[in-house]
């Protein structure tokens, strides 16, 4: 079965999360083999994005859920999600 979000095909779970939730999973979870420097930079950007998500989530329940998922990915606690989107 194919999944489409806003006219775009979601081939992987990563695609589905990005297209349907607007969540850049790689930004929060990282990618295999990234250098320490790249990881620090990515995490700094992810923390800024997470702060924006938290602020927007104060008045939007869906965004609050996306923020919770992003926070788990950033902390490395959403391993099931990380495996699902790999």
Describe the structure.
This protein has helices spanning 13-21, 25-29, 36-57, 61-75, 79-85; strands at 3-5, 8-10. Residues 80-86 have low confidence and may be disordered. 15% of the residues are buried. Helix 3 packs antiparallel against helix 4. It contains five helices and two strands, in the order E-E-H-H-H-H-H. With 86 residues, it is mostly helical.
Summary of the model, kept short:
By secondary structure, the chain is mainly alpha-helical.
Strand order of the largest sheet: 1-2
The geometry reads as flat
Number of helices: 5
Cα separation of the termini: 19 Å
Give me the Rg, rounded. 13 Å
Counting helices, strands and paired strands, the structural category is mainly alpha
Q: Got a strand count?
A: 2
Average pLDDT, to the nearest integer?
Answer: 83
Q: Assembly state here? A: single chain
Q: Which residue ranges are poorly predicted, with pLDDT under 50 across at least 5 consecutive positions?
A: 80-86
Q: How would a textbook summarize the main sheet?
A: 2 strands, antiparallel
**Beta-strand content estimate:** 5-15%
- Write the H/E string, N to C: EEHHHHH
Helical content stands at 55-70%
Topology diagram in text:
Blueprint: E1 3-5, E2 8-10, H1 13-21, H2 25-29, H3 36-57, H4 61-75, H5 79-85
Antiparallel strand pairs: 1-2
Helix pairs in contact: 3-4
